[in-house]
Amino acid sequence: MSTDERISIESATIDDVEAVADCWVSLAAEQRQHGSQLAADTNRTAATEMIARHVVADGLLVARDGAIQGFVLFHPDEGAYTQTESTGTITHLYVRPAARGDGIGSRLLAAAESELAAAGVSTVSIEVLADNDAAQRLYDRRGYESHRIELSKRLESDRHSKDDG
What we know:
The protein is of the alpha+beta class and 165 residues long. It contains five helices and five strands. The longest helix has 15 residues.
């Protein structure tokens, strides 16, 4: 039996919040190598609160084999503007490094898509950091295509000057 077959994908419970928060901190720390400026440990409290809200709203699935090996956070989009079709967003997807390569990320993504489709969503979006090639390959294999490109520029100022001496 492969690791993938021992892993169940299921809705998270309130008892899972701290374990998912541990994963979220690991995700935020890993994303720093891909250019993210999001602090990891510093944001644990805010992330824990966000995770708990997703549990209550049924927008959090976990991959578990006893312990949580990964998670996906998602939601149907709601806003002030009327759209021509219903959309949803996958905001976070993470698989522990030791569990990667066995299809867990694909299974989490497929399960989130299924939940969103059941909620009436017809188009799903997900963000990926530009140099996170592994994540981009996963999303490409699952049929995701570029839709919007975010550009950023570091502003030089007295506070950020490279010539500080």
